[in-house]
Specification:
This protein has 15 helices and no strands. By secondary structure, the chain is an all-alpha fold. The protein folds into 2 domains: 189 residues, Growth Hormone, Chain: A; 190 residues, Growth Hormone, Chain: A (Up-down Bundle).
Length: 401
C-alpha cells in the first residue's frame, strides 16, 4: 500500500478522532455538569478517571495491535467509538455519563496515535519516521478545527445531540476508512508472504540500541516522556487560569491561541528537515523547550510579550514531542514489537497525565503560581537528563538494512 495514501486517510480519521473523543469534552463539560448537578471540577475529575482507565488498557491494546494488525484494531475501534459516544449521548444520570466517558477514552486508545503510528510502521518500517511526522502535521489541526466546530454545534444543539452527530462521524466516515486500510494492509501482507516468493518482503527495522542496553534505555525513555506528559497536560488544562493568576487575564485567550500554530510549525519544520537530526536529539530539544518556556513565563509575567514567547516555545515543545513519542521507540528499538512497546509508553503517559491537573491545582493552592511553576521547571529539566542518559550506541546490524 502507498504510505502517502495511508497518511491522508489516517489524517482524516485522526482529526475526527481527537476532535470528537478528546478536544470536544472541554466545550461540552459545563453543560453536562449543569444537567446532572455536577461542578465543572468534578466533571474534569471524571475525565481524569477515564484517561486513567484508558492508560491502564493501553499495554493490552498495544499487544493486540501487534497480533491482529493495526488496521483491524482501528476498525473495531471505530465501532467502539460509535457505541461509546451513543452511550454518553443516552446518559440519563451521572453514573451512565461517567461510564460513557470511560468507554470514549478506551475507544481513543484503539483509534488514535498508538494504532495509527503502528499501522504506518507495519506498512513500511523504513519510511515510518517520515510518515509519522506527516501524520502528526495533519492531525495537529484537530484542536484548531474542533474547538470552534464543537462550540458552533453546541450553540445550535444540546450536548446529547452533538455526541449523536459525533457518533455518526465515526460510523459513516472513520469506520469505512479504517476498514479500507485494514483490507489494503492485509492484502499487502499476503502479497509479501512466503507463498509469493516473487514479491520481496520488507525486512524489519533494527533499532540502534543493543539488546543488553534496552531495559535501561526503555526505562529512561519512559521517565522522559512521563515528565513531558505531566508538564504538557498541566499547561494545557491550566493555561487560561494560570495566565489569569499571573496577571494576564485580559490577554489569556489570545496568548493561548498561538499555542496551536506553534505546534504545527514545529511539526512542519521537522518534516522539512527530516533525517538531519536523530529522533533522540529531537526528544532532547523538545524536552529543553519545556523548562525554557516555564522560565520565560516565570521571569516575564505579567509582561504580554513574555507570555506570547512562553506559548510559542511551549507549542514548539508539544509539537515535537508528539512526533518523537512515535519515532523515538522505533529508532531505538526497531519495528518488531513496536505496538506493544508504544502501548506501554502510552499507558505511562496517560496515567501521569490524568494526575497532572489535580497535582498542579494542589500546588498552586498551597504555594501559589510562582512556586508551583518553579517546581515544574525543575521537574521538566529532569526529562532532559533522562533523554541525554539514554546514549546512542549504534547496533551494527542496523547497517545491513
Amino acid at each position: 500500500m502507498n504510505p502517502g495514501m495511508a497518511v491522508i486517510a489516517l489524517g482524516l480519521t485522526q482529526i475526527i478522532g481527537y476532535g470528537t473523543l478528546y478536544y470536544s469534552f472541554s466545550v461540552l463539560a459545563p453543560a453536562m455538569g449543569r444537567e446532572f448537578g455536577i461542578s465543572t471540577e468534578w466533571m474534569f475529575a471524571a475525565f481524569s478517571v477515564s484517561l486513567l482507565v484508558s492508560g491502564l488498557s493501553a499495554p493490552w491494546i498495544g499487544a493486540w495491535i501487534d497480533r491482529a494488525g493495526a488496521g483491524r484494531v482501528m476498525t473495531v475501534g471505530s465501532l467502539v467509538a460509535t457505541l461509546a459516544l451513543a452511550t454518553a449521548a443516552l446518559a440519563g444520570n451521572s453514573i451512565l455519563l461517567v461510564l460513557g466517558l470511560i468507554a470514549i477514552q478506551i475507544a481513543s486508545a484503539l483509534v488514535q496515535y498508538t494504532s495509527s503510528f503502528t499501522l504506518l510502521v507495519q506498512i513500511n518500517p523504513a519510511r515510518a519516521q517520515r510518515t509519522i511526522t506527516q501524520l502528526t502535521l495533519i492531525a495537529g489541526f484537530s484542536s484548531t478545527l474542533f474547538w470552534p466546530f464543537t462550540s458552533w454545534l453546541h450553540d445550535r444543539l444540546d450536548w446529547h445531540q452533538v455526541y449523536w452527530l459525533f457518533a455518526a462521524l465515526h460510523l459513516f466516515l472513520c469506520f469505512p476508512v479504517h476498514a479500507w486500510l485494514m483490507v489494503r494492509t492485509r492484502t499487502d501482507v499476503g502479497r509479501r508472504s512466503d507463498l509469493d516468493p516473487a514479491v520481496p518482503s520488507r525486512p524489519p527495522l533494527i533499532g540502534v540500541i543493543e539488546a543488553s542496553a534496552r531495559p535501561r534505555a526503555f526505562a529512561l525513555m519512559l521517565v522522559g516522556f512521563a515528565i513531558q506528559s505531566f508538564v504538557t497536560s498541566t499547561f494545557l488544562v491550566h493555561m487560561l487560569p494560570m495566565l489569569t493568576g499571573l496577571g494576564l487575564a485580559k490577554a489569556s485567550v489570545l496568548v493561548a491561541s498561538v499555542f496551536g500554530p506553534a505546534q504545527v510549525l514545529s511539526r512542519f519544520t521537522n518534516m522539512m528537515f527530516a533525517g538531519k537530526l536523530s529522533q533522540r536529539t529531537l526528544a532532547i530539544i523538545a524536552s529543553v523547550f519545556l523548562p525554557l518556556a516555564t522560565g520565560i513565563l516565570l521571569l516575564t509575567a505579567p509582561n504580554l510579550a513574555g507570555a506570547f514567547a512562553f506559548a510559542i516555545v511551549f507549542g514548539l515543545s508539544s509539537g515535537l514531542s508528539s512526533i518523537v513519542q512515535g519515532t523515538l521507540p522505533l529508532e531505538l528499538f526497531g519495528s518488531d514489537g513496536y505496538g506493544k512497546r508504544l502501548g506501554r509508553l502510552t499507558s505511562v503517559r496517560l496515567v501521569v497525565s490524568s494526575a497532572a491537573p489535580f497535582a498542579f491545582a494542589l500546588m498552586t493552592e498551597r504555594l501559589g503560581y510562582p512556586a508551583a511553576l518553579t517546581i515544574i521547571a525543575a521537574l521538566s529539566t529532569l526529562a532532559v537528563f533522562a533523554f541525554l542518559a539514554i546514549g546512542s550506541p549504534v547496533n551494527p546490524r542496523r547497517k545491513t538494512h
